[in-house]
Amino acid sequence: MASVPCVICYLALLIACLGICWQVHGGGITHQHVTIRSLLPSDACSSYKDGDGVNHNETSLTVLDRHGPCSPFDLHHQLSHKQILDHDQSRVDSLHGRVSTAPKQDQQLDALAASSIPAHSGISLGTGNYVVIVGFGTPKRDQTVIFDTGSDVTWIQCQPCVVTCYQQQDPIFDPSHSSTYLNISCSSAYCTDLGASGCSSSTCVYGVQYGDNSYTVGFYAEDTLWLTPYDVIPNFRFGCGERNDGLFGKAAGLIGLGRDKPSFVSQTYQRYGGVFTYCLPPTSSSTGYLRFGGGYPSSDLRFTPMLSGASSPTFYYLTLTAISVGGQQLLVPPTVFSVAGTIIDSGTVITRLPPTAYSALRSAFRQEMTTYKSAPALSILDTCYDLSGLDKVTVPEVALHLGGGATIHLDITRILYIASLSQACLAFAANRADTDLGIIGNVQQRGLDVVYDVSKHVIGFGPGGC
Ligand SMILES: *[C@@H]1O[C@H](CO)[C@@H](O)[C@H](O)[C@H]1NC(C)=O
Ligand SMILES: *[C@@H]1O[C@H](CO)[C@@H](O)[C@H](O)[C@H]1NC(C)=O
Fold first, then answer.
1. pLDDT digits (tens, 9 = 90+) for 70-127
2. Residue 222 — φ and ψ, nearest 5°?
3. 53-60, long-range: CB within 8 Å, 24+ apart, which pairs?
4. Would the pLDDT of 459 be above 50?
5. Where are the domains of the chain?
6. Is 37 exposed, middle or buried (0-12, 13-18, 19+ CB in 10 A)?
């Protein structure tokens, strides 16, 4: 009985995957055989087409990779893989710093009001973030913004750029040309919710300094936010940044999808019920989606409890309980994972594990890969292979086992970071100590439907999202 759907599913997989097939053992997938050709991203962007499951309670935006052929930005200053991974480590360092020292009460409010840079303990943005296009103001002005589950305050660069604005692709938003723009007053509770705020002629001033010394400072404001021409949020609160500098690429700003009060998710809770889903592009030459509200995607979802971390109200915590390689569960005591806990993050590229778990993963993976020529390490990635000249590669499946019985099965595109065919690296890295926060990064999430449901306190994972 059970084997019939399994055979059908196996055939469907074979047909669907074009060049990718799986080795099935004892009911589970243990290894994946892939043609090398299928691993290479194309030079052209092929965009994801949303299915016809139109649900009027939900809104879908196209997710674009800042680095590939689908990037909305002109790519004169394309970062190298090493630079991307080095920046990823500064994001992780700042995430760790944020958790170990609770955000300080801002001591520089006076300095802020006096228009110098505030010191709000923000995180480093890194370079692994994805962008979406939304509209601000009346009439609507399109702005390409990073979306980030690791921060709360939404902001865009605004005219007049008093001291400095960095270069962005879209024209910089001018609030004086928007009939719906309003400043938020210092006495508003929304101003207090910011954590770091100041006051300038009774107008609320916000400031976020990210861990890599990127910063944005300006007026805290509200205006109409257009997700689509039909889905419009009046009086959305965001920072109108008149002094901004840092590693934002050419993006106009950021949309904060964290859990704390100022975030998009909290502000639109009535409207979308605290539910959003994304599918990050499976390759740099494809696109994904970011959806708010609505039903869950139709794919086969596995749910794990969404937990809260006392030290950071922004982050989405979950429980990682074990890891399997090639169908074999690694012998890592579950307490190794529970010491510091684990978050899921849209903006961290590479999954970070406790060193004890990472070394077990690495040795199991290396044992399965002994037939391949090794290649030099790449930044934080220490297990790399030279696949050039080969037609096919076989990798063991890696699975992440989560609390509540959910498992994320990773295929080769979520196991290897392929800088080039001569340098394909295991896309996991160790934290400095088992006491550092674990992070599920975005390489491991690509192509999956990832559902965040703040009202039901669950995070769901489904295959085949985009
Ligand atoms: C939209 O949401 C409402 C209430 O949450 C529900 O009753 C309705 O069926 C939903 N509509 C669609 C098209 O899903
Ligand atoms: C917002 O406040 C700033 C500073 O007080 C002021 O220059 C600007 O004109 C205000 N904008 C509106 C629409 O009130």
1. 888 877 667 789 988 988 898 898 888 777 643 333 433 333 434 443 434 445 566 6
2. -135, 145
3. 53/298, 55/294, 55/295, 57/293, 57/294, 57/295, 58/272, 58/291, 58/292, 58/293, 58/294, 58/295, 59/227, 59/228, 59/231, 59/272, 59/291, 59/292, 59/293, 59/294, 60/228, 60/289, 60/290, 60/291
4. yes
5. 29-39+300-462, 58-291
6. exposed
pLDDT band per the 50, 70, 90 thresholds, residue 307: very high
- Dist. CA 109 → ligand 2 center (Å): 19
Please state, in angstroms and rounded to a whole number, the distance separating the CA atoms of residues 81 and 89: 13
The ligand with the least distance to the CA atom of 222 is 2
Q: Could you tell me the two tokens for 172?
A: 């910089």
Is 3.90.190.20 the CATH classification of the domain at 29-39+300-462? Answer: no
Q: How far is the CA of 175 from the centre of ligand 2 (A)?
A: 9
Residues of the chain by 3-state class (helix, strand, coil), percent to 5:
20, 40, 45
- Probe residue for ligand 2, chosen from 181, 183, 197, 200 as the CB with the greatest number of ligand atoms within 8 Å: 183
| CA 302 remoteness from chain centre | 19
| CA–CA distance, 117 with 114 (Å, rounded to integer) | 9
What are the DSSP calls for 407-440, one per residue?
EEEE-HHHHEEEEETTEEEESEEE-SSTTSPEEE
Residue 183 Cα to ligand 2 midpoint, Å, equals 6
**How, if at all, do strands 130-136 and 215-226 pair?**
antiparallel
CB distance 65 to 146 below 8 Å: no
Can you tell me the distance from the alpha carbon of 73 to that of 75, in angstroms, rounded to the nearest whole number?
Answer: 6
298 CA to centre of ligand 1 in angstroms = 16
Q: Which helix (H) or strand (E) holds 365?
A: helix 355-368
> Can 148 be counted among the known catalytic residues?
yes
| Residue whose CA lies nearest to ligand 2 atom number 10 | 183
Place of tokens 């060049």: 19
- Phi, psi dihedrals of residue 316, rounded to the nearest 5°: -100, 105
Q: Which atom of ligand 2 is nearest to the CA of 221?
A: 1
Choose, from 65, 148, 170, 449, the residue flagged as catalytic.
Answer: 148
Decide if 345 is catalytic. yes
Ligand 2 binding pocket (C-beta < 6 A) is: 181, 183, 200-201, 203, 219
What does pTM read for this prediction? 0.87
- CATH no., domain 58-291: 2.40.70.10
User: Strand 253-256 vs strand 141-148: parallel, antiparallel, or unpaired?
Assistant: parallel
56 in contact with ligand 1, CB cutoff 6 A: yes
Please give the pLDDT value at position 418: 93
Q: Are both 29-39+300-462 and 58-291 of the same fold?
A: yes
- Which residues is 99 bridged to in the sheet? none
Residue with tokens 């913004």: 145
